[in-house]
Amino acid sequence: MTEHHPSADSIARYAGGDDLPADVLWAVEAHLETCETCRLRLADVAPPQVTALTAAVWAELEPTGTPVGRRHRLARWATPSLLPWLAMTAFVVLAALSLDGLLPAHSASSGVLLIAPIVPVLGVAAAWSRGMDPAYELVVSTPRAGLQLVLRRTVAVLVAVLPALLAGGWLAGASPAYWLLPCLGVTAVTLALGGVIGMRRAGLVAAFAWAVLVVGPAVVVGGVPGVLAPGAAPVWAAVLVGGAAAVYFRSAAYARL
Amino acid sequence: MARAVSAAEVAPTGYAWQVEARGLRVRAGRTMAVDGLDLRLGRGVHGLLGPNGAGKTTLIRSLATVLRPVSGTLEVLGTPVSGRLDLRGVRRALGYLPQDFGYYKRFTVREFVEYVAWLKEMPKRDVPGAVQRAVERVGLADRADDRLKALSGGMVRRAGIAQAIVNDPEVLLLDEPTAGLDPGQRVRFRELLQELGSDSCVVVSTHLVEDVAAACTDVVLVSGGKLVFQGTPAELAAAGGPDDVGDSPIERGYSALLGGAW
User: pLDDT-based confidence at B95, cuts 50/70/90?
Assistant: First the structure.
């Protein structure tokens, strides 16, 4: 389509409210509806009384009020019911440390090591459960409730949980080299699964599977399970990449949680 | 420099009805709470009436894009919301007050409404002004910096209404908004509803017939997950005869249309 803009003269006469032939008036008006450039041209030639009026209106519409508070900004990353799951994390790490005392002394595995990979997953499940977030129903109906909010909350969980695990692991003598990659891998798989069955269920499924398949046998048999041995690191790296890729390619699925 | 109006501000709407449902079926738990509902809603205040368990809340939750319909089509603002789609555009134009309005007790009214404005992806520069306006519209301006836990039940409800209207929604869904409001507040709330209904589609679920009579331009009566009646309050009143149960014409119309189902 070729662009025919109205002449400066007809725009000026339109702005001034002068008599324009009906066909020109109609053409100018129809063109203004679709052409931002010409709306700007119109705005520039508007008579002073009109510009004064519009300036006053826009000035009235200028944002007022106080800027956003600090607590409010924190809520963008974690559910404001952050404290309960921080408490839960501390509890889980403490429980893991006490589990160390129960394990056979000769075993090299530690409770912190066994539990570390699923602690963030529990945090993710908690962040998306109706019971722990009073405004859950409201949050899931907003545009922000999608992959972006899922990732923000996961980051918040990791930021809160990883230092606790590092400290607990250091006390128990479990090197992060053993558990960090499995931890991130399990989290990535949980997020990928969450796009299919919902975040809360995915977190619970992952935690349950880990408990049955890894923690149970390790407690019975003793020793560091194979999946947590340093040799498994490449596998966990692959799991992490695979999980992240699945999340990326199915990002639209997170709109309904 | 002078500001030009953007193309989006003058664009015409591309849909006939703000809400259009055909053969809509939505599951709530194990039961099919909305079962084959056909509904078209335009501008105005639509009072959603029906006995307990009629599917009012399930219908509102599916309109709020929280629940995915099992079958049938549901279009909100001309966009189908039935499948796995990008819902962000629709959700930006929605306002929703859930039946169990959950909130963060430690937040002030202003902080909470601001948080919801952020969740609704409002432009940053518009947020403080929009929050102030929403809080003023529900009459909470003097309590805006009080924590939610310090407010009475009716005030919390009004804060809930403020968060729903903060983005000037085109479709506003209010599930039992008048529960906990005293008579004076209820009258003011009806005035607010009429104001909101003049340029958007407001769906109010209620079981208070007098709310419908006073504030709604349109009544939608559902029972057993199906549409029983849609029309003006006067038409609803006309459906009842002197022999029907009820204290007011609208109540008599309500009981006449529902038969024994209520």
Answer: very high
**How many residue pairs bridge chain A and chain B with CB atoms within 8 Å of each other?**
123
Q: Which residues of A touch B132 (CB under 8 A)?
A: 64-65
Q: What is the mean pLDDT of residues A10-29?
A: 87
Task: Point out which residues pair with B96 in neighbouring strands.
Answer: B173
Which chain B residues touch A71 with a CB distance below 8 Å? 106-107, 111
Q: Does B52 touch chain A if contact means CB atoms closer than 8 Å?
A: no
Given a contact cutoff of 8 angstroms between Cβ atoms, the answer to whether B220 and B202 are in contact is no
Taking CA atoms, A88 is separated from A54, A129, A160, B157, B250, in Å, by 56, 14, 11, 31, 53
What ipTM was estimated for this complex?
Answer: 0.84
Domain residue ranges in chain A:
8-61, 72-255
Cα–Cα nearest to A60, from B56, B20, B133: B133
pLDDT, tens digit, 9 for 90 and up, residues A105-151:
445 456 777 788 888 888 888 888 777 788 888 888 999 888 888 88
**Closest CA–CA distance from residue B129 to any residue of chain A (Å):** 5
Chain A contacts of B170, Cβ < 8 Å? none
* Nearest by Cα to A121 from A57, A200, A37: A200
CB contact under 8 A, B102 and A75: no
On whether any CB of chain B is under 8 Å from the CB of A141, the answer is yes
